[in-house]
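Hello forum,

I keep getting stuck at the same step: I have a sequence, I want structure tokens, and every attempt I make locally crashes halfway through. Rather than fight my setup again tonight, could one of you with a working pipeline run this one for me? It's a single chain of 167 residues.
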Amino acid sequence: MSDEPRTKAELPKRIETARAALDDLIAGLSDDQLVAPAPNGGWSVKDHLAHLSAWEAGIAALLRRRPRYLAMQLDAETYLNTDTDGLNAIIYQRNKDRSLEDVRADLSHAQRRLLEALSGLTDADLLKTYSHYQPDEDSGTPIVGWITGNTYDHYDEHRTLIEALTR
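Reply #2:
Ran it on my machine without issues. Output:
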């Protein structure tokens, strides 16, 4: 995990830099490489992109004080009662047969929504707790960590996985 930004102005820069690195990697791959399953039957690059899109869409909704699970195409009970690995498995199953074009468009749209949601925040808003944005969920941690964990830190994590997958 990287250092958390101290100001709102730092967030878009970090998000865009990490996203550009991911986009550069993806741009160098053919469509066949993007949709090919991992040698062990695991996620394709496209599956990683759908995963990133879902989690980023969730954070964008959260920052607008809307239910995160709806943006992730989940129901409340599943979202609240399933661990992260379980949620990831559901997201994978729901997206594995989608077209590459649709997944790419969703990823681009998710980033735009996230940057728009960030634009309305202040430095002080970054220190407000998760629970401030999602009252039904009890977490006393500042939202900035959730933003970084679902944007640039998440991009970097999956960029590393994609690099290993496409070697």
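DSSP finds eleven helices and no strands in the chain. If your local run keeps crashing, start a new thread with the error log.
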